[in-house]
Every structure is written in structure tokens, then in C-alpha cells.
Design a protein that fits this description.
The structure is a single chain. The chain has about 800 residues and is an alpha+beta fold. The chain is built from 13 helices and 47 strands. The chain has a 10-stranded mixed beta sheet with strand order 6-5-4-3-7-1-8-11-2-12, sandwiched between helices. α7 packs parallel to α8. The longest helix has 21 residues. The protein starts with a helix and ends with a strand. The N terminus is likely disordered.
Length: about 800
Amino acid sequence: MKYAFSIILLLAMSVASFATSSQPNIVVILADDLGYETIGAYGGQSYATPRLDALAASGIRFRHAHAQPLCTPTRVQMMTGKYNVRNYDVFGILAPGQMTFGNLFRDAGYKTFVAGKWQLEGGYDAPINFGFDEYFLWQLTRRPQRYNAPGFEALIPADGLNKTQVDYPAGSYGPDLVTGKILNFIERNQASPFLVYYPMLLTHAPFTPSPDHTNYNPTLTDELDDPVYFGSMVEYMDKTIGRIVDKLDQLGLRENTLIVFIGDNGTDTSVTSTQNGNPVTGGKGKTTDAGTRVPLIVNWPNTIPINQVSEALVDSSDIFPTVCQAAGVAIPSGLDGRSFFPQLLGQTGTPRDWSYCWYKPQNGTEADVKEFAHTTRFKLYATGKFYDVANDVLEQSEINTNSLNAEAQAAFTLLKNTLNSFNDARVERTLPPTPNPAVWSSLPSPKGVAKIGMTAANGVDANGPVQYQFRNVTLSRDSAWQLSPGYTDSGLDDATTYSYQVRMQDLVGNATGWSAAQSTTTPTSPNPRIVIIDQAETDGNSGGQNLGQSFTSTAPQEGWFLETITFYAVTNSGGGDSAYLTLYDGFTNRTSRGKILSVSANAALNPRTAGVPMTWLFTNVMLKAGVTYFAAASDASGAPLSANQGIPAQRMHVNVYAGGSRLNETGITTDFDLKFSVSARQFPANYAQWSLAIPTNSPNGFGEATSPGAMVNGYKYFFGLAPMENDPSRWPRIKAGYYDFILNRNASDVFWRIRHTPNLQTPAASWQSVDASTLSLLYDPATGHVQFPLPNSDAGFFRLEIGLE
């Protein structure tokens, strides 16, 4: 027994001393939304991945590597070496105070750099606090585009970038910029050991052509979103990795650099790939193998034996201790990860018998958590469901645990004990509710029509900023979590008293109970906002047709202008940061949506909790009494989304992305009931009335009325004539002369402006204008006419804008 112990001890010492003497460089690459079925070395046949295949052939690939089903949970788990049950709270946040492998490597004397997708918040100092000397990151303080004309936050003193935002023009491709910064960092630090952490932008949606695709257009600033381009993104990702390998070869660093490549979760569900002759549909967000099984390739020339295929079970928490052991950095206690470095050297090591997953979906609560443990063959959920995943990869046939064979019974017992061992791991993450922990710093007060502003005390705690959630007790409606001071929708009614509560939550998930209720009254306004439709929660069934709602205007008279369309999710909904609706006039049947009236402004935020509204804003629609309108999801141009056939649906689910929106991949969902509201306002008659007398020799069909909208100078206009703005080629041209502008001015705050240009190529800001500043010269008090002289030459194109100061 003593002899056996001595052999094991000597083996461990030899591994550690080898790594220490080598002082290897470490490059950790995390691909975004890339399942194991996509890589050629794993039998993938849909995409060419020669550089990754070469790394696998000259190193080792793991057949049973697993991550969390979604990106942020995997990033938190991999960077900290701990399962999500211990330190994960909110999507998009890494709780302050966590220790990452970046902290350990920087403390060990390594130069550290992180470049790519951050998605962990924390402000400009967060990457520094988590161990990185320099960074070049997307989605650190904002979420601009990532591919075409992208934006980043950067700390790279050598490039003159010191905690600043950097925006790039058309023709710039985000992954190229990130890779270029990595190559520069490696070159600048080739004389000392370095750690590069590269959480890639690719291959996450929006699916847009890479620079190698024939459809790539360097002049575009918009990003497409069509899964047909996924393949070009995979292949460009592979090419990008090849650039890093080539740079290491060029600098003579290759044989002293450990490269780890892993995916963060399964492929997007809109993508189907071929693997070993079989179709495999992506499972991002799902807890099946399609959602958690990822490629893991590790390469270190002349250290890792070539062409190894490991059957060992590993998960993303194991990356942390493995790179530490490879570099001779002491592995801290308290990690869930287990080093697989011995397996890299062809040794047995101490492989896992099981892997554990605690998965909180995006926008989910603790009640939505999915928990399971698995071996390479069997999987047991905390709910008691038991599967043979080796033979039932989609988990369609639950095993009866009352009649198990010996192998299955042993696995069931092992996994049951594993789940039980984590029973108390989450206790410290949640504070028990208390009767009235929140204290109002001030009473709720009106903040405009139908808005209530409230601020609770203790805006910061030891873990950073505290978020607040408001509850409209009267309407049983909760707001999204927000930082103080916050504003919450009072329900769109005017001059009504409501009762509110507030509760708090910090960044690590410590939450309070609801406070005592306070009451306030929405303000009365000269421009009252009203609800013209308030449809009850419904249980409609529209089959495969999706994302449509019709409503009939109940406006009592003309002059009501549509402002918002709001959907209240009754159950949790997917999330993102932009979406569009198109409003159609004259909805009459199941196939005709009628004329497009307007494309909305982006909805600011998708609902993250039950009952929270997602609101689209409209600025140019005057509702007509008794007319039926139809609202449907669209892209930014107003084009209907796929599967959106114009049938009024009572169920709705929007997956939302920067730059546009699209349907969820499975079409109609069965667990989303919605409450549908439309709000409008009427401008009182005593504000102003106008007419424009156009000479009879001017073109017909001059334009259409628009209302209300924000003007660049801060004025608001609620009536205007504009020449068919969506198609400038059809704008009528007007000739020189005097046009009568008849103004019945019953209000002192009316603003008007005529803007014109002889050439549509002229930027709007450079158009010539005639406005109220010349009123004394042009206004005839006897007739009430205002005349505006256009140039003696061809006046070209113009628009009239009238509004309120």
C-alpha cells in the first residue's frame, strides 16, 4: 500500500514540476453557440474546419465535454471553476468578488488579456477586477453591433485606449478587429508568459455574411439575420483561430503555448447540421446533449501526444484547474472543476464519474431552474426523470426507475447521491423575505402622464448597485428590475390613484420582500393618454401562424393619435433588446393585412417577468373611429417576419436581437397568453389648426399626414406633410413660387418650419429652411396667411413640419 501511494505522489510531482519549468503561454478560446456536431474532427460534414481539425489531429479532442446550455452561465462557470448553483444569479452578470483564472495568472506574473464578448457587466473596471491587464470587449457597458460597423470598450494603453468606447465604420468586421488586437498583444508580450482569453463573437446570431462570403457587402452597417449564413460564420471562426496559431508559429512560441478550444453551449436552434450522415438540430438553451455537448480540443506541440481521442467526462468548470496545473499555478480550494491535465499527457489522472448542472434560463427565476447530474451514458434530473442518453439523445423515453438493471441502478444511485450533495449549495444565495425591509426615500410622485417615479433607500450595498422592482398593487402588475431612481407605468389611465410596493435585489441575488404599500395619483394632462383597447387575457389558438393582433379603434372622434401598442406577458418571455411592429390599416381577412401605416420605434426591452409590458412606440398614425387595424412583428423595414401570415393570434413569443427581431424557431408557443393594450392621445382643438394651399399646377398626391414625432431640435410636431418618405424616388418636385400657409393660431407655443432641398442626396441636416423666426416678414394678419418664398429656380423637394414648442 505504501509503495502504491509513493507512485501516485511521484506522478503528481512530475506533472507539476514539468509545468512550472515550462512556463507555458495559455490561450483559451470560447466559441459562441457552437455545438460539437459542427466540427469536422467530430464527424461534422456541413462546414469546413481545417484549422480546428488540424489542432485535434496534433493534440486531443474530448468526446464527452459539456457546458451550460446558455452563454452567460457557461462563462461564469468556466471563469470561476464553480458550478452555477454557487455563484450565478442574473443573466449577463458575473457577481463582484468572484475569483477567476485571470486573477490567478496575473498574480503569478502572467500578462493577461481578454478580448471578444464580455456579457458580464460591471463597468470599465470589471475586467481589471477579474484579473485582466488589458481588454478589448463587446458588450461591456453597452450592446452595439458586433459584426458590421461594431462597437467595443477597450483598455489597451499601447493603442492609446484607456477605458473608452471605440466605434468602427462600415467595412469593419468585429471578429477581425478582435483577432487583430489579440495578435498585437501576443507580439508585444512574447518575451514573458501570457494568458489570452478569447470569448469569441462568432458564431452567435445575427447570422450575417462573413467577409469570405459572396454576399458580404463592406458598405453595409446593418446586420442580416438568416441562418443560411451560419456556415460561413463557422468557417470564418476556424480561419480566425488559424491566424492565432500562425502568429504563434511565426514568433517561435507555438511549442510553448497551450491552446484550449471549447464551445459555450449548443448551436442555435434555427440551425440543422449534418454529423456522420445524420441531421442534428441545434439545442441552445435546452438541457439535452444538443444544448450542452460541445467540442473541446486541446493542443500543445511536443507535450500533448498527437491524435488522442478521450472518452473522459469533462465540463466547463474543469478548464480553470486544468490551465492552472499546466502553468504550475496553485489550484485554489473550493472549486467544483477537476483538472484533466494528466489526461492531456496521456496519463490516467482522476477522471470524473459524474458532471452536475444547475441551469437558470435567461429571464428565469429560481422556480425555472433545471438541475441534473449525468455520466457519459445516464442522466438524472432533480425531478426524478432518468434517461439513457447514450441511446436516447433527445430524452424522449424516460426510464422506469422501479425496474433497473445493475448498470442503470448503479448509475441512478451515483447520480441521486450527487444531486443530494448539492442540496444546501444555494442556501447562501437567497435572503428570506422580511415584513417591510424597503424604506421609501421619498413618496411616489408624478413624472408625466401615466408615469410614477419612485426611489427606495439603500441604492448600493457591499455587492454593488441595488436593483428595484415596483409592483402596481391596483393592477397586479410588476415592473422589470431597474436601478434607482425608477419609473413605472401607472396603467395608462388619467387621474387615477394607484397603490404601489417596492422590493430590492443586489447583484449577487440577495433579495428583500415587498415593502408596505404607498399610494399616488397620476397627473392630469392637457393631452390625456387613454387606453382605447384593453383586451382580456385570452387562450386563442392560431396554429402555425404567429405574431399578429388586430384591434378596432374606439376613438369617439377624429384626431386621436396612436402612441403605443403594448403586450403584457402572462408568463415568462424570451428577452433581448430591440424589436419592431408594423401597423396595417384595413385589416379585413386572414390573408390581407391592408396598407402599412407605420413601422414602430424599437421596443426598448422584452419582458423579463410575468406581467411586464413590452411597448412599441408609434409616431405617425392618426386613428379613425371604427377602423380595424392590425399589428404584426416585422423587421426594421416593416417586412413581415417568417411564419407571420397576418392571422390575429392571441399567443405571442418574440425572440429579440439588436437590429431587428424574428420569430422563435419553433413557431407558436403554447405557454404564452397575452393581454393586449393600445394607447392614444387627442390634441385639444385650441392648440392650432392649419391648412396648406398648394398651387393647382403642383403634382397631385403631395404627401401624407404624419404625427407626432421628435424633431432634431427638440420640438415636437404632431402634424406634417411629407412626401412619401419611405420611397424618395417618388417624391413630387415643386416649382418656384409662393405657397399660402394658413395658420389659425390659438396657442402661443406653435412651431412651424418649411424645409426644402433641390437634391435628395443632401443630408437632411443641411436642408434649407424657413421657420417662425421670419414670421414678421411673411405673416399677413388681415388674411391669416403666411407665405413662404421658395427659390426662383426649381425648388426640388420639401416638407412642412408643424408642432408644439
